[in-house]
Amino acid sequence: MRRHLLHFLFAAAATAVACSDPPPPPPPAVRPPPPKAETATPDAGLSTEVRYIYNPVGKRDPFRTPLEDTPASRDQAAQKLCSDPLCQLDLDQLTLVAVVTGDADPVAMVEDSSHIGFIVRRGTRIGKQGGKVTQVSRDCVEITEFFQTPDGKSNPNKVSLCVKNDATRSATLDLLNNRNVE
């Protein structure tokens, strides 16, 4: 029984110690104000901050699809620029039939292999390669096509269509004097 009494007293003492209030926290220490630091004069020419500047030259645009840069899409883009019948023909399929000069805007007529004629002036789009008529002279029409090199540069290619001299061509008629001129 003593043993039970001893256990009971020990438990009561432990409970009394455990249930007491914790001691109050110590009062905060008063800190002295920090000494005033001398204001440093910033160097006008020296800066420790390094700024990064992005330079996109030579880098592809990450927001564009890579399929736009394929040669097939470039050909489709050239065809979209010009939907005229002249743009659907290759320059080898065209022959120069007539040229009218002496005006500020000279005119020429080209004919395709099925003998259909087309009137062209300076600036007219012609050919599958997206060529443009750049000059109309007395006997020839000069067409400038641009092609892309593998490194992405655009190079001009000048092609001339000239009137074919036909041996069976009839003599030219001078309308003022009503005579044939050779």
Structural description of this entry:
- There is one protein chain.
- The protein has 182 residues and is of the alpha+beta class.
- It has a domain at 86-162: Roll (SH3 type barrels), CATH 2.30.30.
- It has helices at 2-18, 71-81, and strands at 95-100, 107-111, 117-120, 125-126, 131-136, 140-148, 154-162, 172-174, 179-181.
- A 4-stranded antiparallel β-sheet has the order 4-5-6-7, with no helix packed on it. A 3-stranded antiparallel β-sheet has the order 1-2-3, with no helix packed on it.
- Strand 4 (125-126) and strand 5 form a beta hairpin.
- The longest helix has 17 residues, at 2-18.
- The chain is rod-shaped and about 155 Å long.
- The model has no long low-confidence stretch (mean pLDDT 80).
Largest sheet: 4 strands, antiparallel
Number of helices: 2
What is the terminal-to-terminal distance?
154 Å
Query: According to CATH, what is the class of the domain at 86-162?
Result: Mainly Beta
Mean pLDDT: 80
Strand content: 25-35%
Can you lay out the helices and strands and say which pair or pack?
Elements: H1 2-18, H2 71-81, E1 95-100, E2 107-111, E3 117-120, E4 125-126, E5 131-136, E6 140-148, E7 154-162, E8 172-174, E9 179-181
